[in-house]
Design a protein that fits this description.
- This protein is mainly β.
- It has a single domain, classed as Sandwich (Immunoglobulin-like).
- Helices cover about 0% and strands about 50% of the residues.
- It has one helix and 20 strands.
- The strands form four sheets. Strands 9-8-12-6-5-15-18-17 form an eight-stranded mixed β-sheet, with no helix packed on it.
Amino acid sequence: MLSTLAACLLLNDTSFSARSGNPKPMTDATEIQMVSASIKGKVPSCEVTTEYKFTNLGRKRTALMGFPEEGYDAYLEDGRKTWFKKFESWVDGKPVKALAEKIEDKDAQEFGYRIWWLKYVEFGKGQTRTVKNRYISDHGSDTTPRNFFQYIVRTASTWKGPIKSIRVEMDCSGFPSGMLYTCTPAPHKKNGDSLLWYWENIEPTEDHDIEVAWLPDVASLPDSINPDTLLGERVYRRP
């Protein structure tokens, strides 16, 4: 199962952090379909809980699933494999161990790394199983200045056939009162401090990837800078 995540990283004046995404099989061909995906994130704490339902459309099999984490190597020189603060996984409600394996990846950016959190999941013929992950990482930042959190939805397209439903919720209630924040793409619904996206029968692309960005300290900005300009066309203010 694949997702994409970045941890606390630094490149070209950008601290590129917690980027995550949907699961992917570790083989090119699979008879397993992602039936549904539910992603619930919290900002600015960058806590994410994901729950997926998979159905095996073929014979009995063992699926190797990988949850990727990606970032930049600059601060992994002490032998650490990951920038995750925590990573936990369950299959049908039972905790399972996922092993972090660093790999060479031609798609990783310059100075980048990719880690796969790997686990095996057994499927009987026609069996549906629920896979849950929970992780915590750091947000990213740049010299704008703004902070951001990203979730990569497009990796769900690697399972067999379209995904019947994907639902993403970002809880922004952790922002202090008066905080300005934005998101891309436009949410399908905003319910108080929650931003919601949902799709049906979809093979997601980059257009479905989600970012929530916020200004750490509006009061410190020079008078010549318009906060709305930094955040883009859609700006929300935490009550």
